[in-house]
């Protein structure tokens, strides 16, 4: 197996991350490639940098969007990879394709993820640093009385607390940006909104208008005097998003339940700096018409509907979807996947999504020209199954085939995913030799096609 851990650097990883000075939140952070001399400027070049890792060095960083202080994370690993090869830290995978998609047998790729305890601890400490920094800034913004800024809509200059400015926007212009006790980096948020308004861009739908009066009338009539909660770029301004996820490794099902509990509103104790996610602080001067809870989103809630694996039906819940597939397609999903672990079910779902999209039967791989013909064939031949293991047990199906696939978000709730007695679900930080069976599924042997 080509998954190895460099023992010499593991104990020092958390301390190095902790002792290093945190990067300032600027737009001009230079990040050197982990393996070559190419330099990227973050955050503007983040996507180009990650693409370079994959195309030039065959390196994929797992859950990269969830990494706090990504610049610090990359700087740490850049130092480590100066003296070590990818194989010493990364899971090695063999795929039958080149980075550009062309066929090539047994091409080697590398996956850097938190299965490695050193990487897990680094990510955890960076998340703590980000939270601590956000809490410090939040407390300053709530108490600083030296704030001064001209209103986004009128010429009034508001001085004093940032809360006074936000109250002015709501009371005089009915613009609800967010509750002061739940916001952080308010100055940056207001500058972003001001830039959009100066460019005649609607704050909610982001359409561009010919002049300011037309824009203001549009926002008034459409109820667009608010920011769009579906835009991930606004997540950084809401304090609740800085403390998602457990602080220690937990079984997958427990972790899934904690993520759902993290959707509660946030308040901060100014004496201790602690976060209470159970309290909802409402505006005393707002009514139901203007005070909606859109401002307190966590950014990754449960899917509202789940698409069927074989047709366009949308289930209101996982239970509803499984009932539909049993009655309509004669597939008992729980029974068909009862012997599979979580990662295998992920591959099954992505395989079925791809087959249906490519108009291929999931069982016999027969191709059809029309979706109706495919559906008729699968119904008549009773081919609405999960296919053979040889078809879906491939590394390419670890990655979602359909964007924002709600079914992948609820697989944890399905039966049959209880850990066996001999399966290690939590990686011990005290024993580097212990790699759980889920990690073993990423090994060289299982990744050969």
Automatic annotation (TrEMBL):
Listed A to Z, the keywords are: Metal-binding, Zinc, Zinc-finger
> Carries keyword Metal-binding?
yes
Entries under Gene3D superfamilies matching the protein: Classic Zinc Finger (3.30.160.60)
Q: Which GO terms describe its molecular function?
A: zinc ion binding
Show where the C2H2-type domain sits.
200-229
Q: Where is the composition biased (Basic residues)?
A: 252-261
Annotated region described as Disordered, given as residue ranges: 1-23, 246-270
Q: Does the keyword Metal-binding apply?
A: yes
What family is this?
Belongs to the ZNF277 family.
Q: What is this protein called?
A: Zinc finger protein 277
Q: What is the lineage of its organism?
A: Eukaryota, Metazoa, Ecdysozoa, Arthropoda, Hexapoda
Name the encoding gene, please: LOC108086141
């Amino acid at each position: 197996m080509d998954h190895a851990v460099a023992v010499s650097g593991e104990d020092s990883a958390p301390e190095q991350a902790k002792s290093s000075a945190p990067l300032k939140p600027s737009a001009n952070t230079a990040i050197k490639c982990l393996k070559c001399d190419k330099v990227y400027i973050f955050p503007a070049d983040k996507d180009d940098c990650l693409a370079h890792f994959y195309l030039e060095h065959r390196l994929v960083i797992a859950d990269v969007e969830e990494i706090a202080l990504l610049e610090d994370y990359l700087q740490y690993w850049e130092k480590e990879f100066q003296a070590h090869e990818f194989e010493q830290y990364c899971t090695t995978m063999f795929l039958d394709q080149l980075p550009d998609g062309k066929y090539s047998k047994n091409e080697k790729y590398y996956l850097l993820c938190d299965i490695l305890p050193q990487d897990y601890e680094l990510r955890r400490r960076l998340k703590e640093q980000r939270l601590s920094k956000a809490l410090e800034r939040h407390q300053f913004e709530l108490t600083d009385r030296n704030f001064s800024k001209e209103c986004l809509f009128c010429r009034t200059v508001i001085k004093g607390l940032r809360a006074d400015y936000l109250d002015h926007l709501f009371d005089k212009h009915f613009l609800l940006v967010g509750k002061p006790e739940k916001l952080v980096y308010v100055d940056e948020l207001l500058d972003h909104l001001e830039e959009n308004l100066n460019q005649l861009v609607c704050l909610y739908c982001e359409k561009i208008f010919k002049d300011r009066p037309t824009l203001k009338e549009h926002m008034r009539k459409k109820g667009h005097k608010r920011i769009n909660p579906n835009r991930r770029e606004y997540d950084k301004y809401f304090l609740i998003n800085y403390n998602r996820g457990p602080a220690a490794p937990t079984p997958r099902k427990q972790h899934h339940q904690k993520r759902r509990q993290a959707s509660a509103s946030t308040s901060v104790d100014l004496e201790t700096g602690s976060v209470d996610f159970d309290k909802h602080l409402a505006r005393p001067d707002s009514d139901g018409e203007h005070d909606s809870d859109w401002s307190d989103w966590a950014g990754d809630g449960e899917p509202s509907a789940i698409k069927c694996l074989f047709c366009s039906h949308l289930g209101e819940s996982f239970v509803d979807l499984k009932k539909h597939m049993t009655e309509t397609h004669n597939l008992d999903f729980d029974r068909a996947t009862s012997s599979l672990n979580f990662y295998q079910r992920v591959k099954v779902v992505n395989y079925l999504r791809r087959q249906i999209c490519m108009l291929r039967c999931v069982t016999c791989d027969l191709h059809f020209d029309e979706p109706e013909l495919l559906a008729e064939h699968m119904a008549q031949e009773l081919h609405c199954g999960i296919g053979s293991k040889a078809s879906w047990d491939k590394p390419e199906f670890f990655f979602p085939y359909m964007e924002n696939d709600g079914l992948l978000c609820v697989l944890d709730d399905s039966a049959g995913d209880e850990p066996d007695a001999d399966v290690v679900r939590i990686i011990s930080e005290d024993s580097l030799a212990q790699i759980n069976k889920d990690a073993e599924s990423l090994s060289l042997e299982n990744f050969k096609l």
